[in-house]
Amino acid sequence: MPGHEITDRIADLIDEEHRLRTGALHHGGLTPAERVRLKDLERQLDAAVDLLHHRQALAVFDDE
Q: pTM for the complete prediction?
């Protein structure tokens, strides 16, 4: 997955996470399904950020 696709995916995940958290604030919390989705988003976001960092590190060493 190219770097721009990873950053696009991270942005999409952050947007969805923000929508869920904002909705929770305005509607008195999350439903059980929304809590599960939020945990999944957090897991996917962590994995995407780790992948991006890995790609960035490889790019630094490839340039040397």
A: 0.82
